[in-house]
Amino acid sequence: xxxxxxxxxxxxxxxxxxxxxxxxxxxxxxxxxxxxxxxxxxxxxxxxxxxxxxxxxxxxxxxxxxxxxxxxxxxxxxxxxxxxxxxxxxxxxxxxxxxxxxxxxxxxxxxxxxxxxxxxxxxxxxxxxxxxxxxxxxxxxxxxxxxxxxxxxxxxxxxxxxxxxxxxxxxxxxxxxxxxxxxxxxxxxxxxxxxxxx
Length: 198
Prior knowledge:
eight-stranded mixed β-sheet; Bifunctional nuclease domain; 6 helices
């Protein structure tokens, strides 16, 4: 069986070479290798929203998948990035229930968006890591256009200085409006300002 490497999400940065796309940076748990994967805006948003615990007005696709899974009493055991061909990554979602174990083919971006909703681990085949990973990828100081993934990461966040001037009530109104307009980047900044005051 192929050796599997456990990964963790380190960051999401805007991809300047491909407009409207983002780079998801995964790190080897207990190691120095980094696996950067180019993903679309929708998937980046889905990952960032769940990490930041921002709840949209209506369920997104990956939230719907989680609801269906719970409705049919199956869980996600783990996701595995299994292969890379001509620069395209492939992944499997490993599902379990009392009666059945199944593997579902998926894009890594969708699989990871689902994994964080279920709190399940993310793995990558060693042959993919050997081919595509880089060591000590410098993600410090790069501008991010999505909410920062983890409080421990030192990503610069673009705070609007004017947010400090608003009352808590006004900030809550602005947060509701940003979420209803699906401006999740702004919602994350407002939410951070609210959290500072609580």
